[in-house]
Amino acid sequence: MSSREVLLEVKDVSVDYSASNGAVHAVDHASFTLHRGEIIGLAGESGSGKSTLAYAIARLLRPPAMTTGGEVLYYPRVQQDGSNKAFLRALKKDKAGAELGPVDILELTPAQLRTFRWNELSIVFQSAMNALNPVMTVGKQIMDVLEVHQPSMGPDARKKRAIELLRRVGIAADRLNSYPHELSGGMRQRATIAIALALNPELIIMDEPTTALDVVVQREILDMISELCQEFNMALIFITHDLSMLLELVDRIAIMYAGRLIEMADRDAMFEHPRHPYSYGLLNSFPRLHGPRRRMVGIPGSPPDLRNVPAGCPFHERCPLAFEACHTVRPSLQPAVPEIPGQLVSCHLYTPTLTPDMPSTAELAASYEALAERSKVR
Ligand SMILES: Nc1ncnc2c1ncn2[C@@H]1O[C@H](COP(=O)(O)OP(=O)(O)OP(=O)(O)O)[C@@H](O)[C@H]1O
After folding, report:
1. Which residue's CA lies nearest to atom 16 of ligand 1?
2. Residue with the nearest Cα to atom 12 of ligand 1?
3. ipTM of the complex model
4. Ligand 1 pocket by C-beta < 6 Å: which residues?
């Protein structure tokens, strides 16, 4: 369950990839807030900037990627088990009564960053299950992380913790000495999650963690992730282009398009009343198990070239409801009018000075139907 205590404030983060034929603006002024224990789903088509934004937050980007602006404020707290002592010491926030306050991850020194990773934030990468070391048992891989990042822990305690972590992700203790090739794909993915949990981080980023698995195993792993987040009050940024994954897992959904966050809302509000025509199109492009049957239409066209994003709203060339302002004025992420608490949208359709009549979800649906009919006629 998420608290309303802020853990992370991403403010106006922009990232470019430099290339000989012009900079690719992969993330453009992204801002959002994450609370302790909250699960946010970051969704959007391939190439919309999800991974780049997540790796910018974790300071994992390497050239040609460059974070060109913004702040990522992280709010540390003193861990009761002492597991983040080294991080607080590196921040010089370990004196009795020291004001903890936020730190900007983008400004951490290399030494501070080393203590931040694993202790405070860990990442489960895309196809992480293939990233396990093939010549080392899974138990040893967990114990190695503990040895490097929690040097005060002795060998017996490390072994006990490794067994406990494996148990927690549904792997029996006798698998401690198994090599990755002796485990199924689902078990390998569970093992990578156990490694990410080793130091009780406050925040985990998972980038398409279940893509390579069959749907039954995906489902089991999503359930497990949800339980772990609750049990450890851990926040999670879960990246996917498959919105059906988010239906039962996340508290909030953030949708990206062409490097911009174009809508954020609580999960139910997003599924029931998506406001941005892109969000509607994305949600309508996958089948749902529950709810009324709908005709799936999809979104004609393709995203813009990120070296040369059009003026105005980046979606206007594909939008069935675009009007004049959308071609010239860049919308910003703000509460929609009429407001649904927690819902932010970057679309002129919800700016009363520009559009007196905001479209309903049914009108968004009808506009896509009409668009599909038009493209059939052509
Ligand atoms: N090394 C690179 N050099 C140039 N452009 C890059 C590089 N890596 C990524 N990009 C571009 O940055 C944009 C954002 O990519 P990113 O991988 O963050 O998107 P994504 O939404 O995570 O996509 P996916 O779901 O396919 O992983 C894309 O247009 C991509 O082509």
Report:
1. 49
2. 26
3. 0.96
4. 17, 19, 24, 26, 44, 46-52, 64, 241, 306
